């Protein structure tokens, strides 16, 4: 397990099929992001699951992005399994939706501004409203469905620049959301004059779960590592995507033979 120096603490990291994943708890990840923002840093973070890793193996650009993010949290039981196989166990999983929720709690204390980009029209607004209700003090910098298409980058960047958020949640699904942030976060930040930083995070279907557009697996299934099965039953058309899980298991077993 190699140690990397993050902004202020030593955090362990393990490389899974070339993608670095950090050994952080939900609480530690939250502290790190808080510190980045307080220090005025502009950083991208990612929530790595097996689908991310298989997409990164197919797409060198996505691999490059994941190798340069400030923090990659282990999102998913498959990541913990792979790390254990490599004899570098990670302590716990950090679901992206829970990190996003907790970061909104931190933002509400600092009165930071959060921007919600992505999902179907109207969903980002409803997700932001639900979080503002849960965390009074959370400032909604803006919401926009937008599109991950590079044609729309300039217009979306202009909107977000004007809103000056400290937290930017992007829900375009992986890898589009992470590629979007890698392309555009530096352009957004170059116009931010405040000494407070900005952290961007891809959040997948999180807005859908917060608003009830999609339903998360019950806790017992999540605890048993069966979230993927729940999703497969509810959204069977995703079976092709879920073949990635099988490929991930095979690739990990080959790598650690
Ligand atoms: N999405 C979007 N624009 C697109 C494609 C997807 O806003 O062009 C949104 C979609 O509405 C959903 C989110 O991206 O809210 C993530 O979807 P998915 O469940 O596929 O993501 P995952 O959690 O599996 O990465």
Short description:
With 257 residues, this protein is of the alpha/beta class. Helix content is 50%, strand content 19%.
Molecular structure report:
The chain has 257 residues and is an alpha/beta fold. It has helices spanning 26-38, 50-58, 60-68, 77-85, 96-110, 123-134, 153-163, 176-189, 206-211, 219-223, 227-234, 239-255, and strands at 2-5, 10-16, 19-22, 42-48, 71-74, 113-118, 139-144, 167-171, 198-202. The protein has a 6-stranded parallel beta sheet, with helices on both faces. Helix 2 packs across helix 3 (60-68), helix 2 (50-58) crosses helix 12 and helix 7 (153-163) packs across helix 8. The chain is globular, with a radius of gyration of 17 Å. Uridine-5'-diphosphate is lined by residues 118-120, 147-148, 171-174, 204-205, 207-208.
